[in-house]
Write a structure and sequence with these properties.
about 40% helix, seven-stranded mixed beta sheet, 16 helices, alpha/beta, Nucleotidyltransferase, domain 5, eight-stranded mixed beta sheet
Length: about 500
């Protein structure tokens, strides 16, 4: 069985070599001066570089986002870069083959490590680049034979100028990966997330720890470029967890951009995607092509999420920011969820969301930042007020200390109202919102449709079902906000309501 697999792999590799040689042609009439000028241009002009050295891939012009990504990686010796491109937008081709060769050509590459979801996939992906070094006529003509005898194996090869290339499966030990005294300075993780992995949150957390621990730390001070080539196929995935880390660049490219046009117009038309959507359905299209992973809910269904263009904030009768507090801030703990809702003419409008595995201080800073951006009059006074509320917890003292610390750091005073909530079944509480969704009285901010925090909250909501074991912090905050706002809806009654307004003892 192993021999059969080896034979198939060898046959695939020979087919790659043949394809490269058939498509590429060297200009034999080019002078040395022209050749030198062309190579010099190729080192700085990525689109030209691709069209000249990889015509067998470059069936159309590079998209702007592809060129921008290559330039960013070349310019930044130390970076963590998430390139979340839609399916069919050449993630692997550019980030596994063309970009590393461009780095090699610019003397910016010492050791490359390609990580796949398993060792076999990683070897196949790396063999595409290996075949270019071995058989690409333009490369051979400009840089000479790169195949080094004795160091040219599947998944592990070294070019004649001493640059090494290794492949690795997800979770395998990368310790000791080096060539002579050089360690990896370009790591690309290609489709490190898959459908099976993301079904298990514990496996996702374990893989994130492996990426940020053993894998990232194989690199040292000779440069540390780590690139992820993966569209967003889920909410709680390796890539989405990496994307939340500080100083991580996230370049999310959807098949259709925010203006309703194809992101790669040189290759795709809008009618192509419209036809594709009609065949596979919007559920699959959003996940595969729009970096908008979907969860199919049993109680709260996708069709009940109404996206609408919202009026100005001052139009709302009342706005509340409900914080469902998480103390630990670890990947295995609950999420800190801050959900901002508004009331208008008896309907509920979800304005903004913050749903993250983070410390309490991060949630407080989000509220401060949002409040600072509220509309103001000519004298600088806010024209919109938000009632910030949080559910009372046994760690209230720790929360108060954190609130004071962050406010001191930010030089800003944030008022929070402590509220008591019933301790009855949380599932029943959350499901009590369902009539509002069924009756079409809940709207989500269209401007936030592709905001990751908003999508995390929605997927938590759609995961609510009997016996669920997923995070419910977002839906719990939603329910508290909607329940509070519903008290401001006038009740048709012939009797006036008389009484004094009570001052809350929980206001800080």
């Amino acid at each position: 069985m192993i021999k059969k697999e080896d034979n198939r792999a060898y046959e695939r590799y020979l087919e790659k070599l043949d394809s490269i040689q058939r498509f590429n042609q060297v200009n034999l009439n080019e002078s040395k001066t022209q050749r030198k000028a062309r190579i010099s241009r190729a080192k700085t002009d990525y689109a030209f570089f691709v069209s000249y050295y990889f015509p067998h891939y470059a069936t159309c012009e590079c998209a702007k986002f592809q060129v921008d990504a290559a330039n960013y990686i070349l310019r930044n010796k130390n970076c963590v870069d998430v390139e979340a491109w839609a399916r069919g937008h050449a993630k692997s081709t550019h980030l596994d083959i063309m970009v590393p060769f461009w780095l090699w050509m610019n003397n910016e590459l010492d050791v490359m490590l390609l990580v796949g979801k398993n060792e076999g996939d990683a070897k196949i992906l790396l063999s595409d680049l290996q075949a270019e070094f071995e058989a690409n006529p333009q490369i051979l003509a400009d840089f000479g034979t790169q195949q080094k005898v004795g160091s040219w194996e599947e998944g592990n090869f070294v070019t004649k100028n001493g640059v090494a290339f290794f492949s690795l499966g997800r979770g395998q030990s990368p310790r000791g990966v080096r060539y002579r005294n050089k360690r990896p300075n370009y790591i690309v993780c290609d489709d490190i997330d898959d459908d099976e992995l993301i079904k298990n949150p514990l496996r996702v957390k374990k893989t994130v720890r492996w990426v940020l621990g053993a894998l990232f730390n194989t690199m040292d001070n000779n440069g540390a470029r780590m690139v992820f080539a993966n569209n967003l196929i889920g909410v709680d995935t390796v890539v989405t967890n990496i994307a939340k880390r500080p100083n991580v660049r996230v370049n999310k490219i959807n098949a259709i951009d925010e203006n309703g046009k194809p992101s790669w117009p040189q290759k795709y038309t809008l009618s192509y995607f419209e036809e594709r959507r009609s065949v596979i359905g919007d559920y699959a299209f959003q996940t595969e092509f729009m970096n908008n992973p979907q969860i199919e809910g049993d109680i709260f269904k996708d069709e009940q999420i109404q996206w609408a263009k919202f009026p100005p904030l001052k139009a709302f009768e009342c706005i509340v920011g409900q914080w469902d507090v998480a103390y630990a801030g670890t990947p295995s703990s609950d999420t800190n969820a801050v959900k901002i809702w508004g009331l208008l003419e008896g309907s509920f409008y979800h304005i903004k969301a913050f749903v993250r595995h983070c410390k309490m201080a991060d949630a407080i800073r989000f509220m401060i930042d949002y409040e600072r951006k509220l509309p103001k009059d000519k004298d600088g006074h806010p024209t919109v007020r938000i009632l910030w509320r949080f559910e009372s917890q046994f760690w209230n003292d720790a929360l108060k200390m954190t609130l004071q610390q962050v406010c001191d750091e930010e030089k800003y005073e944030l008022s929070l109202i402590q509220c008591e909530r019933p301790v009855n079944n949380k599932f029943v509480r959350i499901v009590s919102m369902q009539p509002y969704y069924q009756n079409g009285r809940v709207y989500y901010n269209k401007a936030e449709e592709f905001n990751l925090d908003m999508q995390v909250g929605i997927n938590q909501l759609k995961s609510i079902e009997p016996g669920y074991n997923t995070h419910d912090d977002g839906p719990d905050a939603d329910q508290a906000a909607i329940e509070f706002l519903s008290k401001f809806i006038p009740i048709n009654s012939p009797l006036p309501l008389v009484g004094s307004r009570l001052k809350s003892a929980g206001a800080w």
